[in-house]
Amino acid sequence: MIDRLIAFPTVSRDSNLGLIEYARDHLARLGVKPHLVYDASQKKANLFVTLADEPDAVKSGGIVLSGHTDTVPVDGQDWASEPFRAHHADGRIHGRGTADMKGFIAIALAWAPRFLAAQRTMPVHLSLTFDEETTFIGVRSLVADLAERGIRPAGCIIGEPTDMQAIVAHKGKRDFCCTVRGREAHSSLTPTAVNAIEYAAQIIAFIRALADRQSREEPRDARFIVPHSTLQTGVIRGGIATNVVPRDCVFEFEMRNIPATSHDTMTQPILDYANGELLPRMRAVAPESDIAFAMGLDLPAYGIEPDAPLVRWAMELAQTARLGTGAVSFATEAPIFQHAGVPTVVMGPGSIDQAHKPNEYISLEQIAACEQFFGRLIASRPPVG
Ligand SMILES: [Zn+2]
Q1: Of 44, 303, 322, 338, which one has the fewest beta carbons inside 10 Å?
Q2: What is the Å distance from ligand 1's center to 280 Cα?
Q3: 318-364, pLDDT tens digit by residue?
Q4: pTM of the complete model
Q5: Catalytic: 360?
């Protein structure tokens, strides 16, 4: 099954329908009814299925096994084997997406008949999403669709590669593109103009000051390598010549917050400063001046109590799992399920160290660990609480 899924080149920018339709047909042959939710372009879809003869009877309850179907690209990477053909060697399966995270999806699909057989005691849902590596649009529409159809799972396991260890926290991320528009003039006449670069620089300095204050004052979350929220400006463009007061400046900045700090706490002061303090000064000289913030990615931080029933249950079943720090630096779909009221833990086979790189692989050992986990899962009952 891993070999089959790797052969679908589901890079985020491309369609994932080949894989989704393959999974749909595989599941339909078992007598269940996968539900597909397409994106606006009809080129991508999520798949959700309840592995039960009467899915309506398990609308409340059951555990979701969830994975994203898209992968990062392979452009410019030096691969020793064909990235979209599984290559078996030295106790490993190589291929783009083996670790992140088609290995998990494939094992779950292969286990579907056994999940189905265990439906009376341990109902399982499968969830396959698109666009996790880019926008998180897929999982948002999937979770919205579940709410619309009144499906309220008791918990969710996101099978991102964690070496089968339970992950209970990661930072959130929000980024903005800020466009500053002033008024241009010959540089000998600067007082008649509004210098967009200089105003952008003031916002950037404000962002930096906010970042410094956060690093000094925010209560630490020691699970993270950088134990506080961060802000930084990553891109800037503006101006055309030294002797022209620049009319336009565009820059991009991002914020990464620890679970205890909200997105808005971190970014609202920036918007307030720009619109409340800088814009009136700019408009006093040139009424056409403007500062616009366009939000890009907006992913909440993820956190679940380390001793939540779902986490304890998943760790017990995985056996290989130890909580360790329980936090990772990569983002997942977990906060989207979590914010929809579905307790969620991140745990899956393979290592993030191998993800996104050339010669990505999953070890047969990790595949076996995931299968043992599923074996204990079907012999278990969903956690209560
Ligand atoms: Zn992933």
Answers
A1: 322
A2: 44
A3: 987 666 668 988 899 999 999 999 999 999 999 999 999 999 999 99
A4: 0.90
A5: no
